[in-house]
């Protein structure tokens, strides 16, 4: 294997753990190239696919700012993927080019769904054409002041932080003790190749103050603890962590403090988003009390974690703007195109919420 | 009952406790959650025969 291929496979290490994705597919994807595209929806679909390994662009590609974030990108002369408007998702192969149409009237929250279907087509040629799913909330501008604490700035947290600040959040506290690794970069959109090895907190402090000078951004380079809720007093906590243990801690602390929280978790092509407050069943009632963390890395795709983050952002904004919240768990599977709302009642024996 | 887990499908013609269903599908209890007709099923509960069952990963990634 040449050095370029080896570098590429290290970069995508985490998505190569997903069933059905192997070195051959990953190297095949890297031969695809995006050129001139237009509009927010097209651009986000392209970015999510580029981050999933379709890593060629021409000089006409409009999101050149993705470059510093994305070392596997390769400049090429000719595009191989062309986006068009159409009533359904359709993928037609015309010589070397893939002509992909989808409804451009869809809200931008559908971008990860479209990217997931196109990626699935590259895997096995199958994809769903219609868009009949109903998402729990839309991505509005933030119209009311509020303070949000984000715990974890990785695959969920990095896009969530950017989505909230882009939509006008002015007061955010971030809790993140970790360091940046090479295999984080394909989905953790606030970090680039030069940041590998540095604490996420240090990089976020530098970048966010430059990108959002009018926002108050406070960053803790430490693990979550209940004391942070007492000192920061956020209106809402968003859990973007990668283990059961911290989710239990956030759940228990938030219920004790009476602070509502949003949680999401993702794996492979699927994940969920939940909103919890004192009168609703807690995370323990949903997941059980006895889930154990292992050290084994989990397979994850950029459009899946982006979708989880986007849903968290939508639910957060809905709460800040209207004090409205979803009561059911929203679960999705982008590979099998399944979207479900799940009723979770309080457990009689739950020591946290009942 | 019709049972879905990702791209896998099973069909059973009897009611079943959650634990038995997970055993029959060959999945690991600690890795999944079970829903029947849109509602979370807990340990000790029996799933009625005509239910539409969805098994999902107990995801914890972020």
From TrEMBL, chain A:
<dbReference type="GO" id="GO:0016779">
    <property type="term" value="F:nucleotidyltransferase activity"/>
</dbReference>
<dbReference type="InterPro" id="IPR045886">
    <property type="entry name" value="ThiF/MoeB/HesA"/>
</dbReference>
<protein>
    <submittedName>
        <fullName>UBA/THIF-type NAD/FAD binding protein</fullName>
    </submittedName>
</protein>
<dbReference type="Pfam" id="PF00899">
    <property type="entry name" value="ThiF"/>
</dbReference>
<dbReference type="GO" id="GO:0005737">
    <property type="term" value="C:cytoplasm"/>
</dbReference>
<dbReference type="InterPro" id="IPR000594">
    <property type="entry name" value="ThiF_NAD_FAD-bd"/>
</dbReference>
<dbReference type="InterPro" id="IPR035985">
    <property type="entry name" value="Ubiquitin-activating_enz"/>
</dbReference>
<feature type="domain" description="THIF-type NAD/FAD binding fold">
    <location>
        <begin position="138"/>
        <end position="351"/>
    </location>
</feature>
<dbReference type="GO" id="GO:0004792">
    <property type="term" value="F:thiosulfate-cyanide sulfurtransferase activity"/>
</dbReference>
<dbReference type="GO" id="GO:0008641">
    <property type="term" value="F:ubiquitin-like modifier activating enzyme activity"/>
</dbReference>
TrEMBL record, chain B:
<protein>
    <recommendedName>
        <fullName>Thiamine biosynthesis protein ThiS</fullName>
    </recommendedName>
</protein>
<dbReference type="InterPro" id="IPR012675">
    <property type="entry name" value="Beta-grasp_dom_sf"/>
</dbReference>
<dbReference type="InterPro" id="IPR016155">
    <property type="entry name" value="Mopterin_synth/thiamin_S_b"/>
</dbReference>
């Amino acid at each position: 294997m040449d050095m370029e291929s080896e570098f590429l496979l290290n970069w995508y290490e985490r998505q190569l753990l997903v069933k059905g994705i192997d070195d051959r597919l990953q190297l095949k994807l890297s031969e695809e190239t995006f050129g001139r595209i237009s509009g927010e929806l097209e651009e986000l679909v392209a970015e999510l696919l580029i981050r999933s390994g379709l890593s060629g662009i021409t000089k006409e590609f409009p999101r050149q700012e993705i470059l510093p974030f994305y070392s596997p990108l390769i400049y090429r002369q000719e595009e191989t993927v062309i986006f068009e408007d159409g009533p359904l998702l359709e993928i037609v192969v015309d010589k070397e080019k893939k002509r992909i149409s989808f409804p451009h009237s869809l809200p931008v929250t559908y971008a990860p769904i479209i990217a997931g279907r196109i990626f699935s087509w590259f895997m096995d040629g199958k994809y769903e054409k219609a868009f009949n799913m109903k998402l729990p909330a839309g991505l509005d501008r933030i119209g009311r002041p509020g303070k949000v604490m984000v715990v974890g700035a990785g695959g969920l947290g990095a896009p969530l932080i950017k989505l909230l600040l882009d939509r006008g959040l002015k007061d955010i506290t971030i809790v993140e003790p970790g360091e940046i690794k090479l295999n984080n970069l394909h989905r953790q959109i606030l970090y680039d190749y030069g940041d590998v090895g540095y604490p996420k907190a240090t990089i976020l402090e530098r970048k966010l103050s430059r990108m959002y000078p009018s926002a108050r951004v406070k960053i803790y380079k430490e693990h979550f603890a209940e004391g942070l809720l007492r000192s920061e007093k956020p209106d809402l906590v968003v859990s973007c962590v990668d283990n059961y243990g911290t989710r239990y801690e956030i759940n228990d602390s938030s219920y004790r403090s009476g602070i509502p929280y949003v949680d999401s978790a993702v794996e492979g092509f699927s994940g969920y988003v939940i909103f919890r407050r004192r009168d609703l069943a807690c995370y323990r009632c949903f997941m059980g009390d006895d889930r154990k963390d292992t050290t084994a890395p989990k397979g994850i795709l950029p459009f899946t974690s982006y979708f989880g983050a986007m849903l968290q952002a939508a639910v957060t904004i809905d709460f800040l703007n209207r004090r409205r919240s979803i009561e059911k768990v929203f679960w999705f599977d982008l590979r099998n195109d399944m979207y479900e709302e799940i009723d979770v009642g309080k457990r009689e024996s739950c020591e946290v919420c009942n | 009952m019709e049972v879905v887990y990702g791209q896998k499908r099973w069909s059973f013609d009897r009611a079943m406790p959650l634990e038995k269903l997970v055993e029959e599908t060959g999945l690991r209890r600690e890795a999944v959650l079970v829903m029947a007709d849109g509602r979370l099923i807990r340990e000790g509960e029996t799933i009625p025969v005509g239910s539409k069952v969805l098994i999902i990963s107990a995801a914890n990634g972020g």
